[in-house]
Amino acid sequence: MTDHEITPKADADASPGDGLSPVPGPDGFSDAEAAFISEMGSLMERWGLPQATGRLFGYLLLRNKPVDLDTMTRELGQAKSGLSVAARQLESWTLVRRTTRPGSRRIDYEAVGDLQHLLLVNNAHMRKFTETLSSGIPVARGEARDRLASLADLFSGFVEQTEALVADWEARRAAS
């Protein structure tokens, strides 16, 4: 990858084989980059998304500028059709945004990587989940009703706490 570098740990003992070196491996990624991309693939797969979607997100998080599907295909070694689907999935989660170059129909993608945005996107999903749980309370009876009410209350608290966390983080960030 040519538009970024991984900064090696400030350690005199760091060596090219320790995964901290910015020297690319045979696939064009350093060991650290490859490990990060792979871990994002595994993580997002546990969330129910295809591993290719997570790998693409990890790859885009490491990029310093938008990238097109042809470049993704070449650098990730995955099929263009699969990466196109993955990019659209990430876009639907608002984790990436698409851009176009002036005078070109080519579409570029870039990660939307600020923590605030990721938390607020997650909150939108949690809010919808909470609303759905709450809609089941009037139709449930007995223990099921109590369970739904308890879960709705838990997730409602999660959303409120996350919003407070983001507001606090924004205030600290603005003050610095």
UniProtKB/TrEMBL annotation:
Gene3D superfamilies, alphabetized: Winged helix-like DNA-binding domain superfamily/Winged helix DNA-binding domain
Q: Does the keyword Translocase apply?
A: no
Task: Tell me the GO molecular function terms.
Answer: DNA binding
Query: Where do the coiled-coil regions begin and end?
Result: none
Organism superkingdom: Bacteria
Residue ranges under compositional bias (Basic and acidic residues)?
1-12
Keyword tags: DNA-binding, Transcription, Transcription regulation
Q: Where is this region: Disordered?
A: 1-28
Kindly give the InterPro entries that the UniProt entry links to this protein.
HTH-GbsR_regulator, WH-like_DNA-bd_sf, WH_DNA-bd_sf
Q: What is this protein called?
A: ArsR family transcriptional regulator
Q: Which organism is it from?
A: Streptomyces cavourensis
